[in-house]
Each structure stands twice: as structure tokens, then as C-alpha cells.
Amino acid sequence: MRIRWHGHACFEFSNGETTIVIDPHDGRSLGLRTPSTSANVVLMTHDHYDHNAARVVKGEHDNYTGFVGEMEVKGGIRVKGYATWHDHSQGSERGPNTIYRFDMDGISIAHCGDIGCIPPQDIIDELKGVDFLFIPVGEVYTLELPDIKKLIELINPRIIVPMHYMVGGLSFRLSPLSKFLDIIPNESIDFIGNELEISSVDLPENKECWVFDH
Fold this sequence. Notes:
Layout: E1 2-5, E2 11-14, E3 19-22, E4 41-44, E5 62-65, E6 69-73, E7 77-85, E8 96-104, E9 107-111, H1 121-127, E10 132-136, H2 145-155, E11 159-163, H3 177-181, E12 189-193, E13 195-197, E14 208-212
Parallel strand pairs: 3-4, 4-5, 9-10, 10-11, 11-14, 12-14
Antiparallel strand pairs: 1-2, 1-13, 2-3, 6-7, 7-8, 8-9
């Protein structure tokens, strides 16, 4: 499986047959580079402009925004969507958010979108022990650091991937990546570049934090 980061919360997952892009942005509206990617499935965790720009993704793709439930997408991959909130007020401030979970090439992935509160225990149980947890760490519109730490402890993923934090050029303020990394042991942090080819046998024995560079 190949994983590629396109900035902000936009990640691409591909096994050669199926390519899933999650939370595409248009780049320009954020002050970032426009994602250059092609897919046959686009998942959007919620309908905000910095997560819903399916139009920039090349190819013929099925688009899903805020999907909740279970479905089979192209390539026979089963995707589960879990209903969460973008805030601490059951969506009254920023609306709903979906966590997407799927397996590709024997590797389990959970993408939290713009999660704004700790989900209920039944969702935690569904996500517990995933291989990759993609979690927003910019705080301003999403979980703050104490809750980020708590959610990671509850889900206990093998690999934590921070996303949705302050980078150069971003047109709105978020917390910097360094603030999140201060709570991660230095020996567990790995800076891996823009993209990664990985198989299930490559997964680490101990919990690690993998930082992508766009």
C-alpha cells in the first residue's frame, strides 16, 4: 500500500487497484499547493471547504461526504463511517464529522477528519488497536491537546499520524506540529517524507508517530 500526504488533512491510499483520497482541499483557498492526485473513491469527513474539494481529484471517482454506516467501495474494500461531532456541542458550532475506517492490504486505517470531541465508547471499541490513526492536532477547530492525548490512549493505535496543523502559507491559524510532538517521546517520532510504501510486515512492534512532509 502507498500512503501519500497532500497537505492539511488530505491523504491518498492506494494498492494499485483502488485509490482512496480522504478530505481533499483545493489548495488555493488555504494558501497551500493544490493536491495532484487521481482516485476512484473520495471520502470527505464533513462538508467544509478545506475538506470537501472532490473536484480537484482527477479520474472517475465515487464521492461520499459524511457517510455513516458500512459500504463496499471499488476494489472490494469495506469502509465504515462513524458519526462524531466537529465540536463539543453536538455539532451546534461546526456541525457533524465522520471518522472513516477501512483495511487495505491487511493494514487498518482510521482517519478522524476534524473531530472535536471524544467519541462514545462503542466507537472507541470499533477503532481500538488500528494500525494507523490519522488525527488532527491543530487544536483551534478540533480536539485540544489533552483530549488528543486521551483519544490516542483510548484507541491505542500502532502508528499515530498527525495532520491538520499550522504550516507555512496556511491562511488561518492552527497550533504548530511541535506542540503536539512535545507529548510524544523523541525515540517514537519518525519523519518519513511525503509518501510511503508499506506492507503489513513492515509495521512496527511498538507505538510510533510518523510525520509526513508535504
